[in-house]
């Protein structure tokens, strides 16, 4: 009973709220709260180190970003950023009894970003993203979690179908080209065969007829 009570108590983190073992939301990219929820679950409930907890949280985060098809930053950069957020959280919690104007403002700023996109897109994402819908989805998520990933999933399916169709078209063109080349080779072979079977002219036809010899009159 005491163990259950401790688990329920540990499942609530200051400012973050309930912790979770994984990111469970569907159809959108994770917020900072989503990522911290997994981070604190691993650190508090499973007693993992801060580094280990960050590794798992980043892994959960990137699984969802991968589904969106949007290129991301390197893992270690994301991990360092998450640990920096945790350090900020620690400092705020340590000073939570100080109700100064600065403390209140810092708490507000921290809370305001909790439900915003934890943006880990690659800094060159705009140039790396080839499909306009993918970029539009990222912009919508940055503006306040607008958009739905299911649409991106359908786009991914459509892109796959288009890619398959393109491959089929290339295959058909190659087959047609191969047939044309084969027909041309067959025609040339036939022509060469016909030429070789034509009767050759006899040597007599090529004998050179020289000029007539002058008749010499003999004197009696």
UniProtKB/TrEMBL annotation:
<feature type="region of interest" description="Disordered">
    <location>
        <begin position="152"/>
        <end position="178"/>
    </location>
</feature>
<feature type="region of interest" description="Disordered">
    <location>
        <begin position="192"/>
        <end position="220"/>
    </location>
</feature>
<feature type="compositionally biased region" description="Basic residues">
    <location>
        <begin position="210"/>
        <end position="220"/>
    </location>
</feature>
<protein>
    <submittedName>
        <fullName>Protein lin-7 C</fullName>
    </submittedName>
</protein>
